[in-house]
């Protein structure tokens, strides 16, 4: 049975991606900080599909958090076929006014954890000559973002990194793809304190399930 690990699976796009993976026949490993939400999703998956769902509570904004997570997953004897690096957040405001520690945590989560998890889970995929890594970037990746300078830059990194690693891995049967959503109705806007911005109040906002369906299609 193929196994997919999804970060940020407790809500939003990650939750929908986890449901889709399970409906498409993968066992799932669900990662985020909110244990009750992960447990509830795991129960929903077990009830509604034939797939197993394993929960790992983890704060991926902590420096080097990917390493103990990788050890816990490997220690449980779980081999990951699909890695979905979805967890991420944004912050709206002038660079010099935003909380400096939150900005560092954003870089750690959006860039650091994504890079480390890719690095850690890739060797087994390369050895097996099969695997998939899906990294969630954003349309923010394609231009600088005044008032969200760090967030936009993290997403530009995700696209650049994913394209380069795909180029390295493709001859070994492993794909690295990137999903670049525009404004999507999740908790993202509220967490970034940007619900009243034109971007999120325009009506041009997709649902998380629509975005996840696009990401799941190869
Ligand atoms: N919504 C949009 O408009 C939009 C547009 C483009 C790209 N994106 C990207 O899509 C991805 C998913 O975002 P979303 O819209 O679904 O937002 P969301 O509803 O806020 O979900 C974010 C997910 O990331 C997890 N997460 C946050 N901080 C974490 C941490 N420190 N450690 C582990 N997990 C953490 C959250 O779980 P816990 O809080 O339980 O940890 C949650 O499951 C992000 O990478 C985001 O940048 C979103």
Any key phrases for this structure?
binds NADP nicotinamide-adenine-dinucleotide phosphate, globular, 218 residues, Rossmann fold, six-stranded parallel β-sheet
Question: What do these coordinates show?
Answer:
The protein has helices at 12-23, 35-48, 66-75, 100-128, 149-169, 188-191, 198-201, 208-216; strands at 3-7, 27-32, 53-57, 82-85, 131-136, 174-179, 184-185, 206-207. The chain is α/β, with parallel strands linked by helices and 218 residues long. The protein has one domain (3-213): Rossmann fold (3-Layer(aba) Sandwich), CATH 3.40.50. It has a 6-stranded parallel beta sheet with strand order 3-2-1-4-5-6, sandwiched between helices. α1 (12-23) crosses α8. The radius of gyration is 17 Å and the shape is globular. The chain starts with a strand and ends with a helix. The mean pLDDT is 97. The structure holds NADP nicotinamide-adenine-dinucleotide phosphate. NADP nicotinamide-adenine-dinucleotide phosphate binds at residues 7-14, 32-34, 37, 58-61, 86-89, 109, 136, 138, 181, 183-184, 186-188, 191, 208.
